[in-house]
Specification:
Layout: H1 2-14, H2 18-31, H3 36-52, H4 56-69, H5 74-89, H6 93-110, H7 113-129, H8 133-152, H9 158-182, H10 185-201, H11 205-219, H12 224-240, H13 244-260, H14 264-280, H15 284-295, H16 300-314, H17 320-336, H18 340-397, H19 407-424, E1 428-435, H20 438-445, H21 447-463, E2 470-475, E3 478-484, H22 488-504, E4 518-524, H23 533-549, E5 555-557
Parallel strand pairs: 4-5
Antiparallel strand pairs: 1-3, 1-4, 2-3
């Protein structure tokens, strides 16, 4: 469906070009206004764009409405992920944790690895903001394991493969930041380099800029001269994008690097450029952080004027932590200038802000504990349901007699292989196999022995499978082999050897007088003829009929 392709393109563009993503979203919303499902998906992307723009309360309102309508659908789980981050960005960590924990549990229940990874990453962020470094790192490492597995898995489209790469790069970048905070600069540098390499391989400039900034921040602790080179690369890439916030990061990093190398004049120049840009683009958080950095290289009087200006700005938004740092630094400067009364006033304000922040953190920790306690019962009940659902899913996908994939699952496997071959321009062959004169086996040796033949043959077929191939029971005595990445003549040779293996197999354990042969039909994907997976299977089935007509115990294939 065109909407599905358009949605995939929006997801691809969101990190790379938000303006273009917005224009594509307008098309999706306009075209899908009469389709409730795609209309809802379009609104979800609206929420993602609101979140990316920092409009967290608007994001929350839109997502809560969607969640009420899609609480038990896949869309509901996507909503939970974005809603969790919107809540976390507003400081409501307990509510955020609740969303991420449900997301993780639902992913565990249905075996959805991407959903599990999203839930684990969300939990890592919550504990990061609670300053619980151990818990945050534990969840980040779990997320890394899941993201690596997803990155290595076969993906149906190039855009899906790029998204998997981007997610892994961000996971590595987050780990780099965590290890940097813990003082393990060697690991932080290693993860940052890996994140940077992946981001460049997927041509995701925004993820690349985050990785460059994390790498530079880590190198400031050990190799400040090398950090300057990294921040210079960040500056050049950010100006190309353009990304004003990342340009501010670059100038701030360059200032810190020059400061570490005892070059205060160069440092001050970069801090001034960072401040000018952050004021110009209303980047309040970056502006306050830059002012704090500038104060370290300014004269006391200039630093005092700079910080007082920052203090007036900090009171216009949720910047309590930065406001506390400003108050503390002002107190120290005023004390150095001998203005003890003013210094004491700012010190009192610093203490009050710190105590308020500690109370807020304690309240958030209590909310998180309450959510964890409330969900523990749900988790225990869910584990039992998970086991039952896994057993049910197994029964629904596998043939109960042979334990091979059944026809329903074969349809999914074949469709995925067909789409992957088209996307990646690789070969695909399908073989349909049928036991010769199987009715005579049942009539002569009983249906019970016939069942034994099907089970034993299934084991032979599995042992003879090439890497990446699948064999399924199609029905009755028919089987289908899906053979990705095989040319037609290569597949013919493989199936011919399989037929000889079956003919020479020792069937005496079932009955000393039993012999067995197979007939097979083969077809290859036509790239210049869009036909669909079912048509490809039908062509292989037609060739099976031809093999039977020619005398059985042979392979028939199309001659182009």
């Amino acid at each position: 469906m065109a909407w599905a392709a358009l949605e995939e393109e929006i997801g691809h563009l969101l990190e790379r070009d938000p303006l273009q993503a917005r224009s594509k979203l307008v098309l999706l919303l306009a075209d899908s206004r009469h389709d409730p499902h795609w209309r809802a998906r379009g609104l979800l992307w609206c929420a993602r764009l609101h979140y990316a723009a920092g409009r967290y309360s608007r994001t929350e309102r839109l997502l809560v409405t969607l969640l009420e309508q899609y609480s038990d659908a896949d869309l509901g789980d996507e909503v939970r992920e974005v809603l969790g981050y919107a809540l976390q960005s507003q400081g409501r960590l307990g509510a955020a944790l609740g969303q991420f924990q449900v997301l993780l549990e639902r992913g565990n229940l249905v075996g959805h690895e991407a959903q599990r990874a999203a839930g684990v990453e969300g939990l890592a962020v919550v504990y990061h903001y609670l300053e619980d470094r151990a818990a945050s790192l534990e969840y980040q490492l779990q997320a890394l394991e899941l993201r690596r597995a997803l990155h290595q898995a076969v993906t149906p489209t190039r855009l899906a493969a790029l998204r998997a790469t981007d997610k892994l790069a961000m996971c590595l970048s987050n780990l780099s930041a965590d290890y940097d905070k813990l003082g393990d600069f060697e690991l932080a540098t290693r993860f940052a380099h890996s994140a940077l390499e992946l981001a460049r391989s997927s041509h995701n400039a925004r993820v690349e800029l985050v990785a460059l900034n994390n790498l530079g921040e880590t190198l400031l602790n050990t190799q400040p001269s090398e950090a300057l080179g990294v921040f210079q690369s960040l500056l050049e890439r950010a100006e190309q994008l353009p990304s004003p916030k990342r340009v501010v990061w670059a100038h701030t990093g360059l200032g810190k690097g020059h400061l570490a190398l005892s070059q205060p004049h160069h440092a001050l120049e970069h801090f001034r450029q960072a401040l000018e840009l952050s004021v110009q683009h209303s980047l309040l958080s970056e502006q306050l952080e830059t002012r704090l950095s500038m104060a370290t290289v300014q004269t006391p009087q200039d630093a005092l004027e700079n910080l007082l200006e920052g203090l007036s700005q900090s009171q216009t938004g949720p910047f309590e932590a930065l406001e506390a740092q400003l108050e503390q630094r002002l107190s120290q400067i005023l004390e150095g200038l001998g203005h003890f009364q003013e210094a004491f006033k700012h010190l009192k304000r610093f203490v009050a802000l710190k105590e308020a922040r500690d109370r807020q953190r304690s309240q958030q920790q209590a909310e998180v504990l309450a959510v964890r306690f409330a969900t523990e019962t749900y988790r225990r009940d869910a584990l039992e349901w998970r086991e039952q659902s896994q057993n049910l899913a197994q029964e629904m996908r596998y043939d109960p007699l042979t334990r091979l994939p059944n026809r329903r699952w074969l349809d999914e496997i074949l469709e995925a292989a067909y789409q992957s071959a088209l996307e990646w321009n690789t070969t695909l062959c399908v073989a349909v196999l049928d036991i010769d004169f199987f009715k005579q086996v049942n009539d002569q040796f009983t249906h019970t022995l016939g069942d034994g033949v099907l089970r034993e043959l299934s084991r032979v077929l599995e042992r003879f499978l090439p890497k990446g191939a699948t064999v399924a029971r199609y029905g009755g005595e028919e089987f289908v082999m899906v053979l990705p990445n095989q040319e037609l003549l290569e597949a013919v040779g493989h199936v011919q050897r399989l037929l000889r293996e079956v003919e020479q197999h020792d069937w005496a354990a079932l009955n000393p007088d039993l012999t067995l042969t197979l007939s097979a039909g083969l077809a290859e994907l036509y790239f210049d003829l869009p036909e669909g997976a079912r048509a490809l299977l039908a062509r292989a089935d037609a060739q099976l009929f031809e093999a039977k007509r020619q005398g059985r115990n042979r392979v028939s294939w199309e001659v182009g």
